[in-house]
Amino acid sequence: YQRRVREAVVSTQSTGDAAAKEGAINNERRTLTALRLDLDAAKNRVRAAKTADEMKELETFVDEAQKKFDEQYEICREVLEERDQANAEMVVHLEDLCEVQVEYFKAATELAQEMCSKVLNRPTKGKAPTRKRKDSSSDEE
Asked: How far is CA 47 from the centre of its chain?
C-alpha cells in the first residue's frame, strides 16, 4: 500500500514548477500578442499607402510580420498542447491516488470495526474494572 501511495504522490509531484511553466506560457502569449499588433500595424500601413511602389515596399514588411506571427503562433500552440497533455497525465495520476486512498480507508474502516467488535465482546464487559485509569491531568502534577 505505502509503495502505491508513494508512486501516486511522486507522479503528481513530477509535474512541479507549474508556476514557472505558466509563466513561460504567458510570455509566449504576450509575444504572440505583440507580433499580432505588429502585423496589424503593417497591414494598416499598406492600406494607407498612396502609391503602388510604396504599397509593394510595405508588403514586404507585412510578409515578414506574418511569418514571425505564424512562427510564434506555432510555438504557442505546441506549448499549450504540452500543457494539456501534462494536465491529462496529472488527472490520471490523481485518479490512481484516489483509488489507493479509497482502498486504504476501506481497510482502515474494516480494521476499526473489527477492533470495536472485539472490544465490545470482550469477556470483562459489564464487570467492575480491576484497575483505575490514570487521569491525564494527574500525570502533570
From this structure: 45
Burial class (CB in 10 A: 0-12, 13-18, 19+), 87: exposed
Q: Are 51 and 95 in contact (CB under 8 A)?
A: no
CA distance 134 to 5: 38
C-alpha torsion angle, residues 56, 57, 59, 63 (rounded to 10): 130
Per-residue pLDDT reduced to its tens digit, 68-122? 999 999 999 999 999 899 889 888 888 988 888 899 999 999 999 999 998 888 7
Q: Tell me, what's the pLDDT at 97?
A: 86
pTM of the model: 0.60
How far is the C-alpha of 121 from the C-alpha of 131, rounded, in Å? Answer: 19
CA distance 74 to 82: 12
Q: How far, in whole angstroms, is CA 1 from its chain's centroid?
A: 24
- Cell numbers of 93, please? 495520476
122's CB contacts (< 8 A; 6+ apart) are none
**Cα(57)–Cα(46) distance, integer angstroms:** 9
Provide the residue type at 84 as one letter.
D
